[in-house]
Fold this protein.
Amino acid sequence: MIAELGLAALWLAAALAALQLIAGALSQRDESGELASLARPAAIMQGLLAGFAFIMLLWLFAVTDLSVKLVADNSHSAKPMIFKLAGTWGNHEGSMLLWVTVMALAGSLIALLERRLPERTMQATLAAQAFVGLGFYAFLLLSSNPFERLPEPALEGAGLNPLLQDIGLAFHPPTLYFGYVGLSVAFSFAVGALLTGRVGPDFARAMRPWVLGAWIFLTLGITAGSYWAYYELGWGGWWFWDPVENASLMPWLAATALLHSVSVLAARDALRAWTIMLGVVAFSMSMLGTFLVRSGILTSVHAFAVDPERGTFILALLILYVGGALLLFGLKAGSVAEGERFSVTSREGALVFNNVMLSAILGIVLLGTLYPLLTEAFDVRVSVGPPYFNPVGAIFTIPMLIVMAIGPLLRWKGDSIRRIKLPLAIVAAIMAAALLLVIVMGDYSILAMLGLAIAIGLAVGSFMPLRGRNLRRVPIATWGMVVAHFGLAVALFGMASESAFSEERLAAVEIGQSAQVGPWTVTLDQVKPVAGPNWTAIQGDLSAKYEGGETAILKPQTRNFWAPEQETTESTLATRWNGQLYAVIGNEAGQGRWQLRLWWKPFVTFIWYGGILVALGGLLALIGRLRGDLKRRHAKARLEEQARYRDEEAPV
Amino acid sequence: MKRLMLWVPLALFFGFAGLAAYQLTQPKDEFIESAMVGQPMPQFDLRPASPDRPGVALADLQDGKPKLLNIWASWCVPCIAEAPQLEALREQGVEIVGVAIRDKPEDVAKFLERYGNPYTRIGADDLSEIQLAIGSSGVPETFVIDGNGIIQHQHLGDIRAEHIPMLLQKLQEAGS
C-alpha cells in the first residue's frame, strides 16, 4: 500500500510538472492567459507530491518492507536504523528520487517566494524547471522505478555495501545533491532570462541565493567526501583525482565562478552573457558528473551501480538540456545587451580574472577526466592522475590565489594600484618571507613550498578588506567573503603541509614492540578479535606517545562484514592541534608480527577545517544577502504605500 | 566573429556527446589479456607445493601433450568454486598442472583434501614470479599450453560449467 501511494504521488507530480511546463510556456505568448496563473500553484503542488513520494520510500526502508525490490536489494533487517534510512538514497533509484524531490521542492520555493523578476521571466524559469524535472520523472518512472514490487517477498535483504555504512557517507550524497539541484535552479533562471532576454541586477539578485546555497552544500559535500576517502579507504590520501571526485569538483569550480560573476552582475550590471553561460555550465557539470558516475563509462575506485542503459538515458537528458540550453545561448545571447564597462584595475577586473582562472582550472579538470574516454576511442588505455592535475592545475591556481589576496581591496568600476600599495606591500612581504622560510627549512617540492607561502599571505590578505573599518558596521556578506577566503587559505595550508611534511612508516611489529613515526612512538599492546552488529574484526590496540609525553590509544581494525561479505580497513586517527597520526592494521606478517601502517600528517586537519570555514563564509554571505533582499523588499513596499497615500491625498 | 564565439560551447558539447555516445555503445572490456598469449613459456622450475605431487618445470610442459596450467591458491575463494569444474575436466582426460601462489604446504594439503586434487603436478610459486612472467594478474587463472610449451589461450577468473566446452576445444586446437 505504502509503495503504491508513493508511486501514485510520483506519477501525479510528473503530471503536474507537465502542466507547469505547458502553462509556463504558453504564458510566453499570452501573459494574461488563464493558463499562466497555473504555473506557480502547479510548481507548489508538484513539490509537495514529490516530497510525499520520498517520505513513502523512507518509510519502506525504515520498516524494511522486503516485498519492495529496492529495499530487498539494498537493505537488511539487521542494519542499524540510521543506515536503513540512509539506504534510501544509497542506491541508484532512491538517489534519483531524492534528486527529483529536492528539485521539485526548490521549484515550489521559487514559485512561492520569488516576486522580484518580471512575471514573464518567472514563468519561463518555472517552465524550464519543469522541463528539467520531467526528464528525471521519466527516467524514474520508465526505467528506475524505486517502488517496484517483487513477485515474492524476499526472506532477507541483500544488505548495503559496508563501505557505505558510515555516518559521514550517509549524509555525503544528499549534501552534494542539494548542491546539484540548487544549480538546476540557477540553470532554470538562466534559461528563463535567455528566453525573455531580460538580464540585469534583479535577475542576478534572484539567482544569487540559489547559487550561494548550492555552493555551500557542494563545499560541504566535497569536504565531507574527501574526509571520508581519507579515513575510510585507509590509503592515507585525501584526494585522488578520481573521476568521481572530479565529478563533484567540476560543478564546484563552475559554481564558484558563477558566484563571483553573479556578484558583478548584481552590483554593477556587467558580465551579463557570461553569467548566463556559467549558469548553464554549472548545472551541465552536475549532470555530466551524474552521467560519468552512473554510466560506468570511466573506471573509478568508487563502485556505483553501473548500467550502460541508464547511461544512455542520462546522456539523452544531458543532450536535451545542455545541448538545448547551449543552442538557446547561441541563438539568444547575442541579443542580451552588453553590460556596463569597467577598467582592468577594478573589483570587476579582479573578479573577471578569478573567473577566467577558475574556468581554466575547470577546463583542465574536465580534460583530464575525459581524456581516457577520448583515447579509449582509439584503443589506447591511459590513466590520468596527480602528475597531470597537480602541476597543470597549479599554473592557474597560483595566480588566482595571489589575485584573491588583493582583489577584494579594489574598488568597483575603476581603481589604482597606488591607492592600495600599503596592504599590497604587506601581503607581498609576508608571502616572500614565508617562502624564504620554507626554502631554508628543508627540501620540499616546489608546489608545496609555494602553497605554504601563498596560504600564509592569503590568510593575512583575506582580512585586509576589514582594515580601517568599523567592524560593527561591516556588512554580513563582507564578513562572509573574508571568512571564505580565509578558509581557503587554511585549507591550502593543510594541503601544502600534508604534502611537504608527512611521514610514513610501514612496520611489522610483535606485540609489545614499538615503531617510530615523526614525533610519535607507537606500541602494539595487543591484537584481539572484536564483533559488531553485522561484522567481526581483528583489532590492534595501539598506544601512541607524542614526543614521550601525552599518550593516545588507537584501535585500528580490519573488518569482515557478513552481509554482504566484504573486508574493510577501519583506520584510526589521533588528532592533535598540529596534525594527525593515522594508523592502519594489516595482515599478520608471520612469526607473531603484525603489519602496521603509520602516517604522521602535520596540519592535515586544516584541509577540512578550511573547507568548513569556506562553507561558513558562504552561509554568512547568504544570510547577509537574504537580509539585504528583505530590507529592499520592505523599503519598496513602503515606497509604494507612500506613493499610494500621496495619490489619495492629492487634490483631485 | 563574436557571434561565432557564442556557438563554441555548443560545438564543444556536441563533440563530447558524440564521443560519450560512441563509448557507451562499445562493449566494455575490463579484462586485460596477457601479452604472453602465443609466446613460449619462460624457463622455470618450481618445487612441489604438495608432498604427493611433483613440482613443475618448463620441460614438463614440452612433452608434446597439451595441458591446462591452473594458477590458484588455497586462500582464494573463487578457487573453491572452480574445484568441481577442474575435477570435471580431469574426468574428461585433461591433464591439469597447478601452480599454487604464495601458499603454505599445510594449507595446500588441507585445500586438496577438502575440495579434491585434479592436478598431476603442483608447483609452488611463493613470490608470484612465474605468475607475473606469464602475464597473469590474479587467481584463479587458467592457461592452455600446447605440447611445445607455447601459451595458446588465457582464461581469466574461475572456470564455470559453461566454459568447459570452450576449454576442451582450445585444448583440441592446441593438440592438432
